[in-house]
Fold these 2 entries.
Entry 1:
Amino acid sequence: MHTNEISMLINEQIESISTNHNIVKINNLNVYADSHQILKNINLTIPKNKITVLLGPSGCGKTTLLKSMNKLTDLYKELKVTGNIFIEDDDILHTTKNVPSIRQKMGLLGQRPFPLPMSIYKNISYGIKLKGIRDKKLIAFSVEKYLKEVGLWEEVKNRLNQPATSLSIGQQQRLCLARGLAVKPRIILADEPTSALDPISSKIIENLFRSLKEHYTIILVTHVLRQAVRLADHVVFMYNGEVIEQGSPNTLFNTPKTQKLKEYLVDGN
Amino acid sequence: MKRSKKTEEAVFKILSGFATYSLIVILAFIIIVVFVKGFNALTWEMVVKTPKGGYYYGGEGGVLNAIMGSLYIAFGATIIAIIIGMPSALYLNVYLLRHKKTQNTIRYILDALWGIPSIVYGAFGFTLMLYLGLNASLLAGILTVALLITPIIVRTFDEVLSTIPKGLHEATLALGSTRTEMAFKVMLKQGFSGFITAVLLAFGRGIGDAASVLFTAGYTDLIPVNIDEPAATLPLAIFFQLGSPIPEVRERAYAAGAILTIIILTVSLTARLFSRQYSKSNIN
Amino acid sequence: MLLKRIISDKLSGVWMLISLTAILLIPLFIIAGLYLKSTPLFNHQDFLRLISSSEWQPHKGNFGFWPFIAGSLYVTIIAFALAAPVCLLAAIYLTQFARSAMMRIMLPVIDILAGLPSVIYGVWGILIVVPFISKILAPAFNINTSGYTIFAGGVVLAVMCIPYMLNMIIEVFNTIPMGLKEASLSLGATFWESIKHVVIRKSYPGIISAFGLGIAKAFGETMAVMMVVGNSVQVKFNPFEAGYPLPALIANNYGEMLSIPLYDSALMFGAFLLLIIILLINLIFRYFIYRTRVH
C-alpha cells in the first residue's frame, strides 16, 4: 500500500471523528417546480448516528427533501431550490466546493435497486475509483470489506465478475448499500429502500440499518408506519410539503399534537 | 484531476450542442431550399393542368396528372391496407393477448417487413404484375404500395392498442361480449385516434414513395379514369423532369417538389394532431 | 339475435385471422418470387461469380454485381461515418443537457423529417450537395468533377438517415431510469462521468441496434441516392468518382430489362440480394432490441 493512500485513510478516519454533532441542518428550505411549491419553509436538525425517519403520505415531498440533501435536485431543471442545507457545516446550496465530493459524504439507496451496468465487483469499485484511489490491492480489500459489511460476501465471492443484474432484487439492494458505503459516507439517504423487496430481504435491510447507525447517520424515507415504528430514533412527519411535527417516536406516535398526524396514524394502522 | 473532469464535461457539452444545432440548421435548410426553389417556379397552372403538348420541352401545362395519380394510388393502397391491417392489429391484441411469445414474434416479423426497402417491393410488385398478367397500371401500383404500407398500419395501430390497459379487456369480456365484439366495439373505439394516425402515416408514405411505383404504375400525361390505365405519380414526375436538360422543365421539378412537400407536411401534421389528442385522452 | 351474434363473431374472427396470416406470408412470397425470377441467372452463372465479378456486360451475358455491391457499401459507409457520430451526440445533448422544452419541439420535427419522401432529399442533394462538391469541396483537393459522386450519395444518405437513427437513439436513452443516473451521481461521479459510464453503457445494445437499422435503411435507399451518385459502372476508391449502388441499378434499368435476355432475371437477382442482406441486418439487430426489452 502506498504511503499517500494510507495517510488518506487515516485522514478520513480523523475527519469522521472530529465532526460536530449536528450533521445535517436545514434552514428555510423551499423548493419550487415551475408554478407550484413542493417544499414549504422546511427547518430541520438531524441528529448524528441515529435513524431519522421522514414519514408522510406519498406526494408530501419526502423524496424531494431527501434528494435536495445531496443536490440531486440539480438534475431536474424545472426545480428551484432556496434556503440553506448545512451538511457538516457546509452550506451545500451556496458552497464553492465541488458537488461530487459533497455527494460522496452521503450514500443513496433508492426505491428499487439500481445496479450500475457492470460487474458486481465494479459496482463497488466504481465509487472508490472516483475518489482517485488507484491501488488495486486497496480496492480489492475495500470491495471485500463492504460486501462483508452488508452480508453479501459469502453469496457473491465466487461470481464477482458477473453482471450485477444477475443477482436477486434483495441482493441487488444490499449491493447498492455496499457500493454507497464504499465511498465512506457519513450519512445514508434511503428512499423507501424496502418497497420493492420481499419481506425477508426487507428484514435484512432493516437489521443492517440498526447496526449501521453506530457509524452512520441514516435518513430514511418511508410511508410504512410499522417500519417507522420499528426503526426510528427521530421522526419527522411531513404533509403537503411542510414539516408538521417532529420529535422522538415515543411522543409522536403516542401523543400526536396535530389533527393531520392523528388521522395519518389511524389510517396508517 | 478534477479540472480535467470538468474540461471533459464542458467539451462534450459544447460538442453535442454543436452537433444538435448544426443538425437543426441542416434540416431547416432542406425545407427552406425546397420551398424557396419550388415557390419560385410554382404557378397555379402547375396544380390545375395536365401536361399539354410540348410540356417536356418547356411548353404549357402542369402536373395535375401526377398529383391525381399519386392521390389515387395512395388512397387505393390505404383502403386495402386498412382492410387487411386493421383486423390484423386487433387480432394481435385481442386473441393473442395471452400469448406473449407469439405476439412478440409477429411484431418482430412485421418490423422486419417495415424495414424492407421500397425498391424490393417494387421489384416484387413487378413480378407479381407479370404473373397476374397485368400491365403497368393504377391497379398494379395500388397493389404494390399496399404491400409496402400494410406493415406500417399494423405496427402503428398495434403500438396504440398495446397501451390499452388489460383491465378493460377483462371488464368487457365479463359483461358477456364475444371477443370480436370486444375487438371492434371496444378496442377500435378506444384506439381510434391512434388508428387514424396509423392510416395517415401510411397514406403519406404511399404518396411519397417512388421506387415501388417505378415499375408498376407506369407514367402518363392523362389522369387515369380506369383502374387498368397507367398512372403518373408526383415523386416520379419530379424525378423525370429533373433529368431534363431544359432549365424550365427542371424548374418545374422543383415546383412539383414543393407541392409534394406541402402534401406530405399536411398529412403528417394532421397525423400529429390526432396522436396528440390520443396521448391527451390517455393521460386523463 | 344470439345466432346472429355468434355468426358475426365467427366471420370477423376468420377475417382477422386470414388478414394476419396473409401479412405474415408476404415476406415468404417476396423471397420466393424474387428467387424464382432469378433462377435463370443462377443456371447461367454461379452465385460466387455473380457477386464477385466486376464485368457488367448484359449484352454479352456477363453479369458481375461487384461494382454495384461495392457502390452500395461505399455510400453506406460514408453515410454512416457522417451520420452516426452526429446522431449519438445530438441524442446525448437532447436527452441529457437540453431543457425538456427543446425536446418537446424537436421530437415532432424529427418525426416529420423522417417522413419526407426520398425524392425531396434527392432534390435537395441536386440543388445543394452536388454543386457544393463540384464547386467548392473537390476543387479544394484539386479534383475536377461534376459533383454527381459517391460522396454526394453518402452525404444525402447521411442526412436522410439522421432523423431515423436519432429518433431510435433518443428512445433508447429515454428508457434509462433516472435512478441509475442518480445512483452514479451520488457515488461522486460528475454529470458527464455518469453519462459516459452509466447511461451510454446501459444504452449500448440499443445504440448498436439503432446504428444497424440505420445502415440497413441506407443500404436499401434508392431514389435520393440514385439522383446524385452519378450511376456509372466502375469500382473506384476515390469518393469523388461516380458510383452505382445496387438499388439504383434496379431502378434505372427496368425499361430495357425485357429486351435483353437474362437482364430481367439479373435485376430481380439484384432485388433478391438486396432483400436478403437487409432482411438479415434487420432480423439480427431487431432481435437484439427484443432481447434487451425482455430483460
Note: The domain at 64-294 of chain C is CATH 1.10.3720.10 (MetI-like fold).
Entry 2:
Amino acid sequence: MSVPRFWRKQIARYNLVGTHCKQCGEYFYPPRNMCPSCRREGEIEDFKFSGQGEVVTYTVIHAAAEGFEGQTPYVLAIVQLEEGPRLTTQIVGDAKDMSIGMKVSPVFRKLGQSGDRGMIYYGTKFVPA
Amino acid sequence: METNQNGVNMSVGIVSYGAYIPRYRIKIEDIARVWGDDADILKAGLMVNEKSVPDVDEDAATIAVEAARSAVNRAGIDAQRVGAVYTGSESHPYAVKPTSTIVAEAVGATPVLTAADFEFACKAGTAAVQTCMGLVASGMIDLGLAIGSDVAQGAPGDALEYTAAAGGVAFIIGNRESELTAIIEDTYSFTTDTPDFWRREGMPYPEHGGRFTGEPGYFKHVTNAAKGLMQKINTKPDDYDYAVFHQPNGKFPSRVASMLGFSKEQIKPGLVVPRLGNTYSGSCMMGIAATLDQAKPGDRIFATAFGSGAGSDAFSITVTDKIEEIRNSAPKVEELLADPVYVDYAKYARHKGKIRLA
Amino acid sequence: MREVAIIGVKNTIFGEQWDRSFRDLVVEAGVGAVKDAGITGEKIDSMFVGNMSGGQFVEQEHIGALIADYSGLAKNLHIPSTRVEAACASGGLALRQGIYSVASGMDDIVIAAGVEKMTDVPSAKASSALAAAADREWEGIMGATFPGLYAMIARMHMHKYGTTSEQLASAAVKNHQNGQFNPIAQYKNKITIESVLNSIMVADPLHIFDCSPITDGASAVILAPADIAHEYTDTPIYVKGTGQASDTLALHDRRDITTLDASVVAGKRAYEMARMGPEDIDLVEVHDCFTIAEICAIEDLGFAKKGEGGKVTFDGETAIGGRIPVNTSGGLKACGHPVGATGVKQAIEIVEQLRGEAGKRQVDGAEIGMTHNVGGSGATAVVHIFSRNR
C-alpha cells in the first residue's frame, strides 16, 4: 500500500479511531463518512473505541497473502467491538487457543512493510483478553 | 521544593512507568546446542538462563508503544499533557525516521510536542530520562515520555546471542509534586570516548571488544558514575533499600554491586536478567520498573545505567505514597515474565529475521 | 421491454493454457459463439466483456477495445465494446448488461463474453490480484486472503449449524464427479472425501481441495430478441429472469456471516421476474469458489433450508439424478474458475443442458435452469433463470 494511502488512515489503524452517527447512534469501524442508515441525514463524528471485543469467527491462514509469508500460520478473525462494529484483524497467539466468542483486547503490532527499503506499516491486532 | 547546586528546581520524578516484554523465550541450552557450546558453563558464567524473543510482528517501535501505553494507563495520564517523547534504542526500525513519532501518535500525544530518537548503546533510555528531567525542571514541558526499547541484536554464534533480548520500559517524567510516584533526587553521568562496542551504519549486528567491554567499559563507568552521585548528594549504599545496575548479564551487576558496597538483597528485585536477558536500552529501566513494582513508600532506589561507547547515568530515587495507588493499574514486570512460551532456535531465528525470505 | 434469448454459445478449454494468450482465448470463444449462432460480424450491434483484472494478470486494461480489435470488429465495423467488472461476478454482469441492451431495444444482436488469463503471473501474484476483490484497506492489509474470508464463513457455518468438513468436502467430490464428463473441465479426475480432508490446509477449515483453481479460459454467448431468435437457431434458450444485488464490500460488515444477502436478494429478484420459485428450477450452476460457497448458495437460493446445505449435499440431493442437480459442469471447483469468464460459462452450461446437448452429464428433461455468480466474498451477486420454453 502506498505511503499516503496508509498514512491517511493511520490514526484509525493505530488507535482504533472510527466514527459515530449522532443521528441514529450507530458506530463504525472501519470509519465511514456516510451513515448507511441515515445517509444524508446522518451526522458523523470521530469516535475512539475502547478496543474490547470478541471473536465472531476466525481462520488460521497457512497459505499467506503476498507479504505475509513470514508470519504463517497466522490467525485471521472478525472481531466485534463492544460498541458494535466488526472489523477484520489478526489475533496474536496460538491457533489452538482460539474460539468463537473469545474476549480480546488490542495490541500495537507491525502489519507489514514495503520490502526492505519501503515503509513499515503499524496498526492494531488483538490478543486473548 | 528542592534545588540542586545550580539553583534549578530538581523536584522532578517518575509520574508513571510501564514495561513490556514479548511472551516468547529461548533457553540458553537451545542456543548452545546450535553452536556446540556448553550451556551449563555459559549459564553459570553469564548468570542468564533464558532470554526474551520478539514475535514476528514486534520491533523496537511496537515494544515502545506497548510500554508507553502501559505507563499512560497506569496513572491515567492525559497524553495531551506530554510535551516530549524520546525513545532510546539501538534497534530503531528506521535508520532515519523517528520511532518517537510512532509512539507519540499511538499514545495520543500528538501534535503539540517535541520528539526525537536517542541512541547511546544500552543507556539511551536513561539519557532520555535525563533529557525529560531537564525539560520538566526548566518548565519547558509539563510531562515528558522517556522510553528505552530494543529488539537487541546479537550475531549468530556471537557471545551476545546468548543474552540479546527484547523488551522496553517507559517513564513519564513530571514535577507536579502530587503526581510523583518516585522523586528523582539527582542524577549524575560519567562519559568518555571508549570504543568497547559498536554497530556501523547498515550493519545488522554489533561488534564488541570482548573482555575490553569489562574493565575499561562497564566497570570504570558504572563505578565512577555511582560513586560520583553518592559523593555529590552525600549518600552511601546503606542509605538505599534497593539498587539497580545495567544488566548485560547477571555477573556484571552482581560484581559491580559488591565493588560499590551494595548487598545481594538490595539488587535482587531489580535483577531480572536471568529470566529476561539484556534488553539493551530497556535494561536498567526494566530493573527500576521491577523494583518500583514492589517498593514501599519512602523506599530509596539507587540506579546506574551503562551504555557502551561509553557512559553511565546514575540516579537517586525515593518512592512516594503514590506508588500504592498506581502500581496495580498496569502489568508488573513479574507478570510480564510469567508464563512464557518457549521457542526453539529455528523459530527464534525466524522471529528475529535471521532467516531471510526471498 | 423485449424478451431476450441466447442463440449461440462457446467456451474455450478451461485450464492452464501456457501456449495461449488472453486475446487468443477470447477470440476463440467469441468467434465460436458467432459460428454457433450462424451469424456474421456485421450483424453484431455491441459487445460486453466481463474481465476482473486484466491489469494485474496481464498488465492490460482497455479490454473492450482489445477484444473488439482482435475479433475483427473494430477496424472496419467499429462495433461498441464495453468491459464490465465486478470481481468474480464480472462474467455474470457482462451477460446481464447484454440482456439489458437487447431488452431495451437499443441493440438486437449482442455478444456477452468473459475472459481471464490467470497463469501468466506466479500463483502468489494471482492470489494477490484476487484479494483485490476484498476490501484492500481493511481486510487485505491485515493479511486476509480469499480462502481466509471463506474459511471464516465456513467456521461460522460449522459453529452455528454443525456443518462438518466431510459435508463441505462432499461438494468438491460431487463437482469432480460431474467435471469428468465435461470436455472443457480443468480437472476430470474423481476425488474422495478422504483425499479432500487429507489435502493441505490453506485456511482452516478449508483444504486446498475445498478451493477452486487458478484457470485460463474464455466464454461467449450471443443474445438476440426472443421474437427473432428462431431465425438463427432451432433451440433458442430464453432469459426468464435476471437479478443483481450488492452488499457490503467487507465480510465483517455483513448482517449475517453465513448468509450472502446479495445472493438472497438477487435470487428473489430473478424469481420474481420469472414468476417462479426454487421448486420450478431443474438445475442450477452456483458459484462454488470454495466448497462452503456452494453450501451457502443452495441455502440462499432456496434449494436447502438455512443450515442444511451441507447435509443436503452430503446426502446426494444435489448430484445429477438428485432432487436438484447443482454444478453439472463441475462447478468452479472442477471445471475451473477463470474469474471473468465464469458467469458466462455458467450460462453456457445451462444452455447446453436445456438444449439437451450435455452428454453424460445431461439432466433428464431439464427445462428450466439457473445461474448464480458472486463477486468477492458476497458483495455482488447476479442470478439468471433460463428456460427452453418461451
Note: Chain C has 13 helices and eleven strands.
